[in-house]
From TrEMBL:
The keyword Membrane applies. It comes from Helianthus annuus. GO terms for molecular function: diacylglycerol cholinephosphotransferase activity. Signal peptide: none annotated. This is AtPDCT1/2 transmembrane domain-containing protein. The chain crosses the membrane at residues 73-92, 112-140, 152-168, 188-206. It comes from the Eukaryota.
């Protein structure tokens, strides 16, 4: 073997690859365009132009937003309106009872119930029957029909209600009209925030709609509305308790759906008996 060939074999062969920066970079759907200028002599050899989505809007897009998306536009106007209300409102002093617009709207009903304890007790008993209807239907969907979503949603809801109700214990309204026939029966203490009466009714109504039981769902919604009026009239709940009760029913029904979907996946992976009691 010659010296020339030996030298040729001992020299390693290397390849150098030069990486070029991309011309476009997208971060969260915002495009940054590379405008490399070979003629500039500045130290910054690359300049990036900002191509935001809003810069491509046209007048037609703006009017189309108002035409095809009126609900978000309404919420935007409402945001500005309530910002003005909030920042100019006189705060309720600590020595005064809370202001509740629901109490104002039902003042005349409160006077009627205060003047007639028998009527108040009768309405409280009917409301307790409605709570029993909610409970019976929700348990029926699981035990008889094998659809546990409403039951899981109710368990989620009452657990969260217990945590929040204990964490912030609101004062009982001064004009509260109690009754031994009201649920929970026996004039026992209860959490004001948030209304389990309303949330449970919403969970049951949503399940009825899924099963296309439209008449039964309409009945529950009507009774729930009457329940709201009664609870405001007796000062059993603040308006915010009832409003959050509606939202809580929807929220925990959605969370129960996610849980059940995951439970079905686990059942398919682990075997047919792992989640048998909660399979739907």
């Amino acid at each position: 073997m010659t010296v020339e060939k030996l030298h040729h074999r001992t020299v390693p062969q290397t390849t150098t690859t030069i990486l070029q920066p991309p011309n476009n970079i997208s971060i969260n759907k915002i495009n940054l365009k590379n405008t490399h200028n070979h003629e500039t002599t500045t130290t910054l050899s690359h300049r990036w132009s900002f191509d935001a989505f809003c810069l491509r809007w046209t007048v037609a897009d703006v009017f189309g937003l108002l035409k095809y998306h009126p609900v978000p536009c309404f919420f935007g106007v409402s945001l500005l309106f309530f910002m003005g209300v909030e920042y100019t409102l006189w705060m309720v002093p600590s020595s005064s009872p809370p202001f509740d617009i629901g109490f104002v709207a039902t003042a005349w009903l409160h006077r009627v119930l205060a003047a007639s304890p028998v009527l108040n007790t009768v309405l409280a008993g009917l409301n307790t029957v409605f709570v029993g209807m909610q409970t019976t239907y929700i348990l029926w969907t699981w035990v008889v029909e094998g659809r546990p979503r409403a039951t899981v949603a109710t368990l989620f809801m009452f657990t969260c209600r217990g945590i929040l109700g204990y964490s912030t214990q609101l004062p009982l309204p001064e004009e509260f009209l109690g009754s031994g026939a009201d649920f929970p029966v026996g004039n026992v203490s209860f959490f004001l925030f948030f209304s389990g009466h309303v949330a449970g009714s919403v969970i049951a109504s949503l399940d009825m709609r899924r099963m296309r039981r439209w008449e039964l769902a309409f009945l529950f919604d009507t009774l729930n509305l009457l329940q709201v009026v009664r609870l405001l009239s007796t000062r059993g709940h603040y308006t915010i308790d009832l409003a959050i009760g509606v939202g809580a029913g929807m929220l925990f029904d959605s969370l129960a759906e996610k849980y059940m979907n995951n439970a079905v996946v686990a059942k398919d992976v682990d075997g047919p008996y792992t989640n048998r009691a909660l399979s739907s």
